[in-house]
Amino acid sequence: MDQPSPSSGASLNASFKAGIQAGMGDLRKITVQVPEDVLEKAQAYTGEGVTQTVTAALKRLASIQAQQELLKLRGKVKFSVSYDEIKRERE
């Protein structure tokens, strides 16, 4: 999955911009024990199989971590252009 799916939301898109790579890259086979009801609910939500659901959850955790790191920078980064200037450039 190279592009975020529509259901992955804006937070995943923000994480992409923050440097989180969403590609599969190198794979690692793991064995995990999870409560059956939790997995079933997660799979029902994603509409995917076990591997895809676990991968989506791990990506979401990486996204949350990236967002938290960006929030730590709030107020510490100075931009040389204003929001209005950026907005005008998009028009």
Task: Describe this protein with a few key phrases.
mainly alpha; 4 helices; elongated
Describe the structure.
The chain is mainly α and 91 residues long. It has one domain (6-90). It has helices spanning 9-17, 36-46, 50-72, 83-90. Helix 1 packs across helix 3 and helix 2 (36-46) crosses helix 3. It starts with 8 loop residues before the first helix and ends with a helix. The relative contact order is 0.14.
List the helices and strands and how they pair.
Layout: H1 9-17, H2 36-46, H3 50-72, H4 83-90
- Helix/strand class: mainly alpha
The end-to-end distance, rounded to whole angstroms, is 31 Å
Largest sheet: none
Helix content: 55-70%
How much of the sequence lies in strands comes to: under 5%
- Unreliably modeled segments: 1-8
What's the rounded overall pLDDT mean? Answer: 81
Order of helices and strands: HHHH
Shape: elongated
In short:
This protein is mainly α and 91 residues long. It has one domain.
